[in-house]
Sequence to fold (263 residues):
Amino acid sequence: MLFMVYSTLLIDVDSDGIAIVTIDRPSKLNALNAEVLSELDDWFVIARDDSAVRGVIITGSGPKSFVAGADIAKFKDLSRETGKGFAEKGQAVFNRIENLGKPVIAAVNGFALGGGCELALACHLRVASDNARFAQPEVNLGILPGYGGTQRLPRLVGKGIATELILTGAMISAERAHEIGLVNHVFPPEGLLEGAKKLVASIISKAPIAVALSLEALGGSDTPLADGLRLEAELFGQACATADFQEGVDAFLEKRKADFKGK
Ligand code: COA
Fold:
């Protein structure tokens, strides 16, 4: 894992288990082509089962762009069939990111447009530099978001705001993205990665199974309430069967810091 080499991704895993995945096509503002998607897919498959990775930060190369969208240069040949497949492929990769079972944070360092905004939406949390810009500008090209934007954006920011963003294609600032809950924190550009790392570090200091089960339960918040509550109770039971739960309770009662083992 630590030695994986990709042509469109830079991977750096530190000794605390925080992996920084940098999408590295700065000359094209890190636009997502098939190779980027396939390399992301490959890495996230490996990262799921690699205990050296405890949390992930996704960012873009260079000072200007997180990801400026899917690669428009490849759009011309899309037909009804290939267009559907194109959307399904991106959706599958982003689902894999969302279902990693470990926290994934988007550190949005510039343009997050179209597929870039959708990539950020598939992450569990988003932080942004104060010069970041967000949009779902697909209507300008005669299409609609195809990598999950019409589904994840309204779930995150509400249907009214999502509808306006998707129908107008308007670009919004990091400040506005923060106001509507699209990003959790805004940092100056030079503090972005540090801010993202602190957030991941605070999560991975907790019991890993509890974090994974919380992510799974939060995924259920899109279902009818009764189904979500059933899922929550089931997962709560699973958490109670872990050694980390015993350790967490013992540590509290003994007034010491918990030593979680992920078991
Ligand atoms: N797909 C493919 N290439 C892209 C791209 C994308 N989504 N976004 C930017 N690029 C390329 C540009 O074509 C350009 O390549 P070139 O130097 O070979 O001509 C390079 O990245 C730099 O972009 P440029 O447009 O020159 O930068 P800018 O600062 O003038 O404008 C943007 C920045 C983001 C406003 C502009 O690039 C843009 O509108 N990009 C498309 C955004 C979009 O619609 N994304 C959603 C797609 S569904």
